[in-house]
């Protein structure tokens, strides 16, 4: 966000406690000090007001980046998202663009109390007109947010809370060079975008684990554990929920013939269910077993001391992998 603010004068950041405090997770720390309160500022505790103001700003040439603070705090703004953010470009036949980013710290793994942990991605992916992204690595957190800010359409940017303080060795100067300004104040350049592109996070030959956001490290840990038992598991990081990269995901599944989708959200009518359907439809004749899911349970998000039972873990993933009809080989 700091680099995007410096590169493009139309970018503004606002939300609850993002200014002086630097955000609940300190993600915006220092932005107000560097850019002033006109570029990064606090708002009242009114998510619908935050979203409505962002819509007006985006309609008038600015690029708002708003923070909802917590996933379950975003619901009061959902009517604005569905009725205005998602529909305005279509309603105006493309004449009015809404280049805004809705940052949502989401999912579990931090021991948050009620309304502080939720997995709400299905609501957004089911709403036509929204781009929905979920990074899982440090490098993707940078490049995908820069791509989201440069995007001419509204983006819901899901930030896994438990990954905020993860560490990774990256060449930040090289990443920044991809987004060098065309000219001072002239807006950001648009390199090859990460939007709509899944990646292979780990190679494997026996089965494919498909995950996104906070579930990617869990899938990688499961693949590592499986390797100790002599089983080679491929891991696909979906990254972009909408638009979805059918080509990369399905090519991976066709190569192994078996697939398991992993997500923290409840399984019923979920993003995981959609991925299963897409893979099953496109890869049916390549499958050696039905595509399976490992998800959160179909219950309200549990209390902090119980979330380790609720969240998909390595053992649950490997148990499902063991059920992929290996006896048919």
Task: Give a description of the structure.
The protein has 329 residues and is an alpha/beta fold. 33% of the residues lie in helices and 18% in strands. It is built from 13 helices and 12 strands. Helix 3 (47-59) packs parallel to helix 4 (78-85). The longest helix is centred in the last third of the chain and has 14 residues, at 215-228. The N and C termini lie far apart (50 Å).
The structural class is alpha/beta
Give the strand line-up of the largest sheet: 2-1-3-4-6-5-10
Shape: globular
Written as H for each helix and E for each strand, in order along the chain, the element string is HEHEHEHHEHEHEHEEHEEHEHEHH
- Helix count equals 13
End-to-end Cα distance, whole Å, is 50 Å
Average pLDDT number:
93
Number of strands: 12
- Describe the largest sheet: 7 strands, mixed
Descriptive keywords:
alpha/beta, 329 residues, 5-stranded mixed sheet, 7-stranded mixed sheet
Explain the layout of strands and helices.
Layout: H1 2-7, E1 11-15, H2 31-35, E2 40-42, H3 47-59, E3 63-67, H4 78-85, H5 88-91, E4 101-106, H6 121-125, E5 131-133, H7 138-150, E6 155-160, H8 172-177, E7 199-202, E8 207-211, H9 215-228, E9 233-237, E10 240-242, H10 246-256, E11 259-266, H11 271-283, E12 292-296, H12 307-310, H13 314-321
Parallel strand pairs: 1-2, 1-3, 3-4, 4-6, 5-6, 8-9, 8-11, 11-12
Antiparallel strand pairs: 5-10, 7-9
Helix pairs in contact: 3-4, 9-13, 10-11
């Amino acid at each position: 966000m700091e680099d995007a603010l410096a590169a493009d004068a139309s970018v503004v950041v606002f939300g609850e406690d993002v200014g002086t405090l630097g955000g609940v997770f300190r993600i915006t720390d220092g932005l107000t000090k560097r850019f002033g309160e006109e570029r990064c500022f606090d708002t009242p505790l009114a998510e619908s007001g935050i979203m409505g103001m962002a819509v007006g700003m985006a309609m008038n040439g600015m690029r708002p980046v708003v923070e909802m603070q917590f996933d379950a705090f975003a619901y009061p703004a959902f009517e604005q998202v569905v009725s205005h953010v998602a529909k305005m470009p279509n309603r105006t036949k493309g004449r009015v663009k809404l280049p805004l980013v809705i940052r949502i710290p989401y999912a579990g793994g931090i021991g948050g109390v009620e309304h502080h942990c939720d997995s709400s991605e299905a609501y957004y992916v089911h709403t036509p007109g929204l781009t929905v992204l979920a990074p899982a690595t440090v490098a993707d957190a940078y490049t995908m947010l820069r791509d989201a800010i440069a995007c001419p359409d509204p983006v819901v940017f899901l930030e896994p809370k438990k990954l905020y303080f993860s560490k990774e060795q990256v060449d930040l100067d090289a990443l920044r060079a991809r987004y060098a300004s065309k000219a001072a104040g002239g807006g950001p350049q648009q390199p090859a975008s990460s939007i709509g592109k899944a990646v292979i996070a780990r190679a494997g030959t026996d089965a494919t684990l498909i995950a996104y956001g906070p579930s990617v490290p869990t899938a990688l840990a499961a693949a590592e554990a499986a390797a100790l038992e002599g089983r080679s598991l491929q891991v696909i990081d979906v990254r972009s929920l909408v638009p979805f990269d059918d080509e990369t995901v399905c090519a991976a599944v066709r190569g192994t013939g078996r697939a398991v989708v992993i997500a923290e959200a409840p399984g019923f009518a979920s993003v995981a269910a959609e991925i299963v359907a897409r893979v099953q439809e496109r890869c049916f004749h390549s499958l050696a077993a039905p595509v399976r899911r490992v998800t959160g349970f179909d219950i309200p998000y549990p209390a902090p001391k119980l979330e380790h039972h609720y969240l998909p873990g390595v053992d649950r993933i490997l148990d499902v992998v063991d059920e992929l009809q290996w006896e048919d080989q």
